[in-house]
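Inputs:
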Amino acid sequence: MELTIAEENYLKAIYHLSEGGKKSVSTNDIASEMKNKPASVSDMLRKLGEKEVIEYRKYYGLQITEIGKRYALQTIRKHRLWEVFLVEKLNFAWDEVHEVAEQLEHIHSSLLIQRLDAYLNYPKFDPHGDPIPDEFGDVRSRPRVQINEMEINQTGQIVAVEDSSAAFLRYLDKVGAYIGARIKILDKVEFDGSVEILVDQKKTIFMSKDVASNILVIQS
Amino acid sequence: MELTIAEENYLKAIYHLSEGGKKSVSTNDIASEMKNKPASVSDMLRKLGEKEVIEYRKYYGLQITEIGKRYALQTIRKHRLWEVFLVEKLNFAWDEVHEVAEQLEHIHSSLLIQRLDAYLNYPKFDPHGDPIPDEFGDVRSRPRVQINEMEINQTGQIVAVEDSSAAFLRYLDKVGAYIGARIKILDKVEFDGSVEILVDQKKTIFMSKDVASNILVIQS
DNA sequence: CTTTATTTTTAGCCATACCTAAAGTCAAAA
DNA sequence: TTTTGACTTTAGGTATGGCTAAAAATAAAG
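Outputs:
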């Protein structure tokens, strides 16, 4: 069964909102995620229910099915592989890739994705540090902590951000806190939760708790 | 102004059928090229006329405008650049690229195309030997002859094919007559126009006039 | 100069995917 | 237990882009 572009986008949103199928999702949540109206969502949910990619009970929200998860993961896989391509091969900045990847993820060709994956050397994480599902939908995830949860003198490597708005990404680029950067916690201010960190053993930056809580690190 | 995918496909078909805007094109021709019905074409022509990418007089065919040409060439440029990418980077065979490039050509991002062009080292021809328009729509074309128009002992290099059906491309692959191959005419049979040619100084193949007339060569 | 055949267009219908406005459902507060 | 308010769905409309069937225009033949 082939899904339309709109259906793929809904499924992806539902997958994310349900945190991988764990939580039930509401019509309103989907509407605000998709930036459209609840009435439009109701319509689509009926269709997705008929295609059995979600289990839909009117007025009681929905659960994504196993089939639905497979489609969602396939789309996420394509999105993230294209992001790797754009950053590594075409030298896009990581705040420029999202919009283009949103389009590229809907290209239908399993051969294309196989070849792209091989060409990129089977990457396991995208430029934002998010895991790339394999062709069976399996995801290799790493335990990650927010910077504000770390203690003084602990070290680690930045692997992902929770807020991927262009403004936030540009800010990170400016201060040099890119994905892959090695960091060390130099100081924490108990009063407001702000932290001082050393980036790549050379640059000291200061960030509010608000910023720190949006940056994810693997400790080492 | 942004064109829809359908509009881009119509413009591309019109551009090709009119041989770059030289000839006027009929509704029926477009319908058979697009594999849909004349009634659907009439509808679309009205819209394209309103957007001023064609000049449309009911019952009298149409001419593509300068603006329309720019859009068509832009789409053709994207299609051919993606074909180069698929063949050179992802190791697609040249008979596998068309369908995927048909999808990729509709991705909207001028940055993407600039970067892709640079990444591929500003190619001037696609894997079928067709010229790639530059970002201003300029095309560098080479004088080309069909193999059946060449004389005994003349030499040249295969640069394009006129029939790009998958079946024909597979046949060419089988006999080793790929784009870029150097050839020499060994013999011509006046009776049926068939020819015997030497490919890359090592392989002798025999082809009917029908096949020979579909292969284009730059003489040298 | 008609008649006929071909081509093209119009009219009206279908599906997708969005919208607004109105009606229906559920749950929490009175 | 009833009422209120938030959430959700339905009804009916819009635009795109296809279709068939029928009407209209052009061109070709008698």
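Remarks. Residues 4, 6, 36-37, 39-40, 43-44, 47, 58-60 of chain A lie near DNA strand C (CB under 10 Å from a C1'). Helices of chain A lie at 5-17, 27-34, 38-50, 66-88, 97-104, 110-119, 166-175, 209-212.
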